[in-house]
Amino acid sequence: MNTALAAPAAITLRNLTVAYRGRPAVHALSGEFDAGSLTAIVGPNGAGKTSLLAAIMGRVQPSHGDVRFDAGPGGRIAWLPQQAEIDRSFPIRVFDLVALGHWSRLSSFKGMTTLQRDAVPHALATVGLDGFAHRRIAELSAGQFQRVLFARVLLQDASVILLDEPFNAIDARTTADLLAVVARWHAEARTVIAVLHDLEQVRLHFDRTLLMARRCIAWGPTAEVLSAEHLCRARQMAEAWNDAPLAWRQAA
């Protein structure tokens, strides 16, 4: 391989360990997410997938090792959390929630510019919610709300995008539409990392995969990572924990 032509790393993990109450959720994980890559993170429940995203975002401090983020000049990182983490009873309009995507670029003394305001309905149209701007988020279905969260990420214009179970409990049409948004981000050379459970979905839409069972089982091209041998090893490691259910789609 000609290393001179290799893609630079957007995120580098060096011996990363994340622990809660002395128990490792992520253990000694090292590797790189190349700039512009499209990577799925998979593994049994309790494998440390969400903890890894939290460490990359800086929401939790590593117990050991570190995360290095290099998105280039002006680079930003966006994070789409699981729906369960958001209080949908909060009385906020779709427009205002999506507009929060501009938050990091807003002046302390001025509101949104006309261009920024106009970007909100455009983002909603992109995710298939044209005309939804003035609805309350409590009125939306799970699929519609997930489209709103994707619209907010669109406005963040980030070079690195982290998605935590973005297609969980939503309908097939919404999943297809949002996968098209992910494909668009990839075509724009953004680095996209998504925690997923549906292995067939990963095989069809993600060219790179990190298979975790707290430790790294395999990391590389999806077809190589999702081998029967690697999946079996991940299941065996999960069974050894005796502390997490194995509700994992084993589409081997």
What does this structure look like?
This protein is α/β, with parallel strands linked by helices and 252 residues long. The chain has two domains: 1-74 and 160-165 and 190-252, 3-Layer(aba) Sandwich (Rossmann fold); 77-157, no CATH class. Helices cover 33% and strands 25% of the residues. The strands form two sheets. It has a six-stranded mixed sheet, with helices on both faces. A hairpin with a 1-residue loop joins strand 8 and strand 9. Helix 3 packs across helix 4 and helix 4 (142-156) packs parallel to helix 5 (172-187). The longest helix has 16 residues, at 172-187.
Average of pLDDT: 89
Q: What is the radius of gyration computed over CA atoms, rounded to a whole number of angstroms?
A: 19 Å
Roughly how many Å apart are the termini? 30 Å
CATH topology of the largest domain: Rossmann fold
Kindly estimate the percentage of residues that lie in beta strands according to DSSP. Answer: 15-25%
Main β-sheet: number of strands, strand sense, barrel status? 6 strands, mixed
- By CATH, the architecture of the largest domain is named 3-Layer(aba) Sandwich
What is the CATH H-level superfamily of the largest domain?
P-loop containing nucleotide triphosphate hydrolases
Describe the strand arrangement of the main beta sheet, using strand numbers.
5-6-7-3-8-9
Structural class: alpha/beta
Roughly what percent helix? 25-40%
Enumerate the spans where pLDDT stays under 50 for 5 or more consecutive residues.
243-252
| Domain count | 2
The number of strands is: 9
